[in-house]
Write a structure and sequence with these properties.
By secondary structure, this protein is an alpha+beta fold. The protein is built from three helices and 28 strands. A hairpin with a 4-residue loop joins strand 12 and strand 13.
Length: 528
Amino acid sequence: MKKIIFILLVFPLVLFGQNISKVNTTIDEVKVFLNGAQISRIGNINLLKGDNKIIISNLPNDLDPKTVIVKGQGDFIIQTVNTSINYLSDYENDPKYKVLKDSLKLLQNKVDLNNSYLQVYADEEAMIKANKTIGGTQNGTNVAELVKAADFFHNRLLEIKTRTIELSNQNRDLQLVINKIQNQIASYEAIARRPIGEISINIYADKATTGKLNVTYFTNYASWIPSYDLRFTDLNKPITLQFKGQINQTTGENWQNAKIILSSSNPTISQQKPQLYPWYLSVYTPKRMGNADIRGQKAEGSGVYVEGVRVLDKSSPAPTMMATSYETPVSMEYTLEARIDVPSNQEKLVNIQSYEMPAKYLYYTAPKVDPDAFLIANIYDWGKNYFLDGIANIYYENSFIGTTNISSYQVEDTMQVSLGRDKSVIVNRNVIKDSTAKQVIGSKVKYNRAFEITVRNNKKYPIEIIIEDQLPISQQKEIEVSDIAVGNGKIDPDTKIVTWRYTIQPSATIKTTIKFVVKSPKELNLAL
């Protein structure tokens, strides 16, 4: 009776477990978004007549069933597709992992053996030193015995010391290799021990046949970051802009010989259009705070400037290849021209496109804020190309200067990029003492302010420079700003920023002044 029950229990397992097979697939194409990636895999399948269950394993553990698409080629019917997470990884049977573990064990055994020899030598040395008395305390020792014993102690102790040093050096070198292997094993296990995603595909075939599967799914464990190289060699030549992409993926699997598409889209943010609702006004009554002592601190602005023109000889990692671009209704896609490998947990830098862009170079200075002159490139025809937000490395004749920002929100057709400080253009802003004073006139205080700005061109060629300063803006009717004198400078009516534009010949100096008067009530203390 027990045998019959056992057969009945086992029979259903055999029945329902038949025609189940794990299929090895390879990554064919990856579309990498700014956040996330769509991975397409292909694989061959062998089907038996009837119901078949195909399992595709070793996938990212963030599989979303809504993003899984399975297509087939062959004489069979795909019935259902399911996803699951497998927490029982069998990474210990991976041949690569076994090689690492075996190598570690061999090295550790060698260290243990060396340590055993070292201990034996240490014990022998101690024994020799403990028995170095010759002939006892009652009887004397002849010269021959003394010489013979001395030679023995000398030779044996020297041999022990020499061998001890050799073994210690061996252990030190072995430990360095052991540490590297242990780090590699730890890195492997950190990925291998993660739960893995699996896709189960139920397929029906009228007869035994073969076919192909194409499986597509989305993972959050990948992204790419746009970046740029701006290179210029001469102020009379166009500027070169190299558009690059840094691919990052932590899926736990290396993308080998894969077709890579970089997309400007970001599917992880909402794609739903916004909607406006009625805006109702209401009266706001602030709450009483009592006699609170409110203190604050003014934060300094964070203007984006490039540090001085420093020859650091810093070169970017060599990108791999170029790409062809394709504009979709909602994004831009860049397909790399060659298949590449993208290892997991490593950055991969690729070239996307290169542009030769006409540019006009000039200098800019605002000595009230910063005493240096900055070389500026006005890049024309900017709107003809599609750029994403990113950091741009600036190079002058292959020497790294600094970084700047590229913005996708550039509306104008000309983009202005700061290329760095130039110490050969000397700028000074000094107070004109004879025209600067503070006077009390009745209930008013009169402030006379005057500044002289000088710019010297120590270059061997003429330069064009824009100088900016500013006038104070009164926000109270009791405070008046008058007697403004800025020479040939132009004043912006809204911001009161004053702009001068000059062409300075080699070894020449220009001067300009800005003057104004401020009147305010005596009880107001102005910071001028």
